[in-house]
Amino acid sequence: MQLNPAIPVVTPKGDGYAHILIDYGAEFNLLWVVFLDDSGECWTYDNSQIRAQKNVTMGRTFVSMHKAPLAQIDEPAGDKKTIR
After folding, report:
1. 20: buried, middle or exposed (CB in 10 Å: 19+, 13-18, 0-12)?
2. Looking at beta carbons, which pairs linking 11-14 to residues 24 or more positions away fall under 8 Å?
């Protein structure tokens, strides 16, 4: 799906704009096609690799790629469920 307008994002290679979103279905991460601001390179990232850029109007005043994605945050031992 083409994103209109493009979404400003922070990636491991720097800031850029996501122009296309690829969704292969429920069993896969979304893929974001991003053109980088500094080099113009086109890269594809999944959800765990990108963040929205800072936007003071929307209350997003700090963005860091160094914070662990939600999926990597340790859960208390009692909350883990076994999938069979």
Report:
1. middle
2. 11/36, 11/43, 11/45, 11/49, 11/50, 11/65, 12/45, 12/49, 12/65, 13/39, 13/41, 13/43, 14/38, 14/39
Angstrom distances, CA of residue 12 to CA of 3, 35, 54, 77, 83: 21, 13, 15, 31, 32
- Phi/psi at 33 (nearest 5 deg)? -90, 115
3-state secondary structure of 70: helix
pLDDT in tens, 47-58: 999 998 887 777
**16, 36 Cβ separation under 8 angstroms:** yes
pTM over 0.85: no
